[in-house]
Design goal:
By secondary structure, this protein is of the alpha+beta class. α3 packs antiparallel against α4, α6 packs across α7 and α8 packs across α10. It folds into two domains: 166 residues, Regulatory protein AraC (Jelly Rolls), CATH 2.60.120.280; 101 residues, Homeodomain-like (Arc Repressor Mutant, subunit A, Orthogonal Bundle), CATH 1.10.10.60. β5 and β6 form a beta hairpin. The N and C termini lie far apart (49 Å). The mean pLDDT is 89. It is built from eleven helices and ten strands. It has a six-stranded antiparallel beta sheet with strand order 1-2-9-4-7-10. A four-stranded antiparallel beta sheet has the order 3-8-5-6, with no helix packed on it. Pfam families: AraC_binding, HTH_18. Keywords: Activator, DNA-binding, Transcription, Transcription regulation. This is AraC family transcriptional regulator.
Length: 290
């Protein structure tokens, strides 16, 4: 692992490396060996920060939350801006640095484990900046992982930290999938999801969705299912049922009122859809949440 140990840590910066003796314990621990943190840092306004590697034994995740920088891979230099995330699989040759004019603020994480390669494949091994936006949820997880530096190398805390990394990578994979449009056409799942959200209280048919994606109904349905695992209409219904769960949890509104609010004048039909999606009737769901 290459850590910029000679580069001066900026004010309010964080950097820690998991001791080798603890890594060996994590590798032997069934609850930890899937994924574990090998190093982590937070560099605010990191003027002068730069790194060059010919290869490294673990995986690296870098998240830029402000400012800018650049990443060089295979003699190609790519801009890195606020909201960009980089996933660098083990062994990759790369170079990156903060901008001289607007130095970046970044979180960085080194990790390894039996599932590290699988998560790399799940994210898609982009090895290039992908903009996911400045996500408070992602920042909170990074901040939580950073607390490991206060753990006095407690094994239980590092096990929990590894589980946080799994949750982080799963969420990053979802964000990356949502933000990447399909090559060769204008199909964009994030745009379709936004359209569905706009119509969450009413109706939306396949013709409208396909028209928005500028595709035939057949090709739109095929591409949408490949991206999400569900047909467009079933996905839209699932979004409605999740909204229904929120309303059942957070409001005293009647089931009839909620059904009507989500575009279902027939309460019995709404209840059947709800049970099919959630696994229980709306009445049962509400009582189970009390």
């Amino acid at each position: 692992m290459s850590i910029p140990s000679r580069w001066p840590l900026p004010p309010d910066g964080i950097r820690f490396i998991t001791p080798r003796v603890l890594i060996r314990r994590l590798q032997a621990q069934p609850l930890a060996q899937s994924l574990y943190v090998t190093a982590m840092g937070y560099y605010p306004r990191a003027s002068g920060h730069a790194m060059k590697r010919r290869g490294h034994p673990d995986h690296i995740l870098i998240y830029c939350t402000a400012g800018s920088g650049s990443l060089t891979l295979a003699n190609e230099t790519l801009a890195v801006n606020s909201g960009d995330i980089l996933y660098l699989p083990r062994g990759s040759h790369h170079q990156y640095q903060a901008s001289a004019d607007t130095p970046w603020t970044i979180y960085w994480l080194h990790f390894d484990g039996l599932l590290a390669d699988d998560f790399c494949a799940h994210i898609g091994s982009p090895e290039r900046p992908i903009n996911i936006g400045v996500q408070p949820r992602v920042i909170r997880v990074f901040d939580g992982i950073a607390e490991l530096r206060h753990s006095s190398h407690n094994l239980a805390e590092f096990i929990q930290g590894g589980h946080q990394v799994q949750a982080l990578l799963s969420y990053v994979a979802l964000l990356v999938q949502q933000r990447q449009p399909y090559a060769g056409n204008n199909f964009d799942t994030e745009n379709i999801r936004a359209l569905m959200q706009e119509h969450i209280h009413g109706k939306l048919d396949l013709d409208t969705l396909a028209h928005e994606a500028k595709l035939s109904k057949f090709h739109f349905s095929k591409k949408f299912k490949k991206a999400t695992g569900e047909s467009p209409i079933n996905y839209f219904i699932s979004m409605k049922m999740q909204r229904a769960c929120y309303l059942l949890d957070s409001t005293p509104r009647s089931i009839k009122h909620i059904a009507s609010e989500l575009g279902y004048p027939d309460t019995y039909y709404f209840s059947r859809l709800f049970k099919k999606n959630i696994g229980m009737a709306p009445e049962t769901y509400r009582k189970a949440k009390l």
